[in-house]
Design goal:
Chain lengths: 274, 274, 274, 274
């Protein structure tokens, strides 16, 4: 089942779409700066872009970590980006009551991995009719995403994306089971690979999450070769000074080369292999 | 740091306290039946009891699974049990706005494992001043509970309990790292061992969570020998027909023998070993 | 560092080479039948072939499982295949004293995963001067293969291949960490991906190892997209009746399509991406 | 099924026996020094002792690590310790041809964890008629030890001990699944808990294995509370200068207190709980 989103369709037989943006909305100016850069790049490379950014980082490791601009301000910025660049936008929701207002402003509601089994959140998100991108919990087997799908479908919404972002492997480490991609695809819904959160090392820095940015590219290639509908890649013009997820984000300046190679691979895989 | 709760104190140098009850509040009559049975048993065995039950099962595997009596009705029942039997009661909260009303009715607010990093929930719970029992996420290393503690302490609340309930081990399986008990105890707060959720097999039954009830007793003994402040054990007069967590709950009729042996062990460990 | 093997070179910048054959040598006739089929196929597709088969299955789950034709008979068959088809051959060794005779008969000695830390076996294998394919133990981190490399290099032998075949993930399950491929490549030696043993479910059938043949193709694609020097794929004309590893082997009749698609992918990756 | 060993019996209903000694035989003098100290301590505490030491460390992380005094010299020392102190002795074997000579010198042959599926080694060990202590592989589910038992029993030998020493948990970390103890006991054979290897961090020091000595005591208590026939504890008068396993061995000076507390616990558990 494919999911239409403005001028393009997300589906296993479509070119990969890109969900990208900085981890959090740092300011209106920064958000527009990033959106413009990504919009221009994706237009040049002919890659369907969904702009992603969070208005609240609701589960930071430390209570002292930056959480973002807040919902009202954040949704306004995202909505304005949507209008300005005519691109779909995505943000994550953390509570049922955030779903309706977020659905006014964005095209895709994202369910965070830790919350993928919270029934009320799934139902509230589903009821908006917006496309839903659910991250597979780090604690969940890929086949168990069928139960998540069933919760969403019970609302009459079948605009569902299932996203791999790593599975617990010992302490402070995630691993990607590439078998999980075809397993989740058995639900019939498009599968997304989150290449930047997959290289997180949760708690690896004590009061913050570490990461292994150098593995984003090979893991993204592996996922594309397995077959996915979309890639999720967080990016920042200066990741090492970003307020969150710096160790995993891809420098904006490196996005072009990465995307060019991923597009070649995806084209071959979908044209001649799958 | 010990946590006072009515007539007893929960602490690493105190006899183990028992957090027990059926997984969910099935009805007023059933809740009173269970509370009376546990109250009488614990009075006879001289074990400090905290009665536990959920008013809402907010993260069931399947959307069709029974969720409980709801918050208003559930909190009333728990509050009445507290008055009737003069025992502390505990329930779990899933959203920040549930914390204040729940704190009116119960003595201990419990943070579910999947939600142990949700900052707003922790802060709202902490602000009530009630004792907080936080389940360690299945995705979290025991040392990373320090960050959870710091979030709670930032509210001025230091009535904190840290609870082990299993860690992800491959798919559909949890494992208890007994090293996690002394590691969590380094925070200075009492450590609880949840013996029944530890034997869950999440998703093991397709649309429901399976379990290995036969390992509750040996794991509880292992935890006590390591050294804990409290045990968490769900129980039911007829687990196999319970609306949730049947495969892991201990039959009520088996609680006496289990508690008698655990008490002997705990007494020896705290008197002569630790 | 590349490894020369007859008419071709195994290296990260070379087209992928194929290590293939039935799990065990069932008989002279069967071995020749399989070798001829693979030789013809690889010649047609222009893929460098190393024929693989075991003379002894030394660590079967059950004592009653078929172990093979024995070393003397087995090495004679492999040596004759090498002469008859003019292709390099590979077999696994399980004890230091097998290394010298095996080195007379074959071009590559393979160290089984369970034995990858047995110093005497590594040293005896290294001393033969033959190329060595070491399977990474299911219990070993990829970065710890450096220690294995150092043991082999201490014999003056630097014709080393490092092979990923899955890592323990809970019980009875293996997982491939695709990050392990570039991590092992940091040693400077060619990296092999074993696509059929990676989908084993050890002990999954009680007295035998199960498997998930349907994931061989996507995992092989993922590995190639990450970048490898060789693929290891066991195959059989009728896997379900094979004396060992039936649940994981690829039907001989399916090899052509699989190899054609893997070759296209490998060509693109090495020409335009890596 | 219990296993007789000289003047005592190893069994699930017997007081725990102690397998102890330094990791490797460093010299005749050192071995006698350690054996005398352990013999005297165990006699005083009335604990059945099996003296353990290795003549060869066959799977060290690094090729440069000390391997021991060799088989001939090592077996002579162990045999002399057996005579001198009239205690059973145990050593590990790594190749089938070591089994017969080792069986001349020692009472228990131990199969290393990495080698627990090597059929020839198990059969050769079994055929000696000596008691066999098999370490469960770090890669093996506890229920799969039944296959190992069946291999040994096929030789007519039923003097079998099954030993837990940790299971793979992510990279460079082991975890003890305490459920594994009763699961292995279902085979009918005595279960041993190896408290010092269980706290290894394989590869944790780069070219050597690290460890967490501080968890030996709590894990040993947890195992005893679960119910075991024997404990395996490596010890050294000065662990930090030992040629192997220093980070995990217990200082000899700390053994008395540890054993006293473990004995109290074991007595209670076996008298009143199991």
């Amino acid at each position: 089942m494919s999911v239409s989103l403005g001028r393009f369709v997300i589906g296993q037989d479509q070119p990969f779409r890109l969900i990208a943006g900085p981890c959090q909305i740092e300011s209106r100016d920064h958000a527009f700066f990033m959106a413009e850069a990504l919009h221009d790049l994706c237009q040049e490379l002919d890659i369907g872009l969904i702009y992603k950014s969070s208005f609240d980082k609701a589960n930071r490791s430390s209570v002292n970590a930056a959480r973002g601009v807040g919902m009202t301000e954040g949704l306004k910025i995202l909505s304005d980006i949507r209008s300005r660049f005519d691109i779909p936008v995505l943000t994550d929701v953390h509570a049922p009551e955030q779903c309706a207002p977020a659905a006014e402003a964005v095209d895709v509601l994202q369910i965070p991995a830790f919350l993928c089994r919270q029934t009320d959140l799934l139902l509230a998100a589903g009821k908006t009719g917006r496309a839903i991108n659910v991250k597979k919990g780090q604690f969940l087997a890929p086949q168990d995403m069928q139960n998540v799908v069933d919760k969403l479908k019970s609302t009459g919404n079948d605009r569902i994306l299932l996203c791999e972002r790593g599975t617990c492997f010992g302490y402070n480490t995630l691993i990607n089971d590439m078998r999980g991609l075809p397993i989740m695809a058995r639900t019939g819904f498009p599968v997304v690979f989150d290449a930047t959160h997959s290289v997180q090392q949760p708690g690896g820095l004590g009061t913050a999450t570490g990461g292994q940015r150098e593995f984003v590219a090979p893991l993204a290639r592996a996922a594309i070769a397995t077959g996915v509908s979309a890639l999720f890649i967080e990016t920042h013009q200066e990741p090492d000074t970003a307020p969150s997820d710096g160790p995993t984000m891809i420098p904006l300046a490196g996005m072009r080369d990465l995307l060019v190679s991923l597009k070649k691979l995806d084209q071959l895989v979908k044209a001649e292999i799958l």
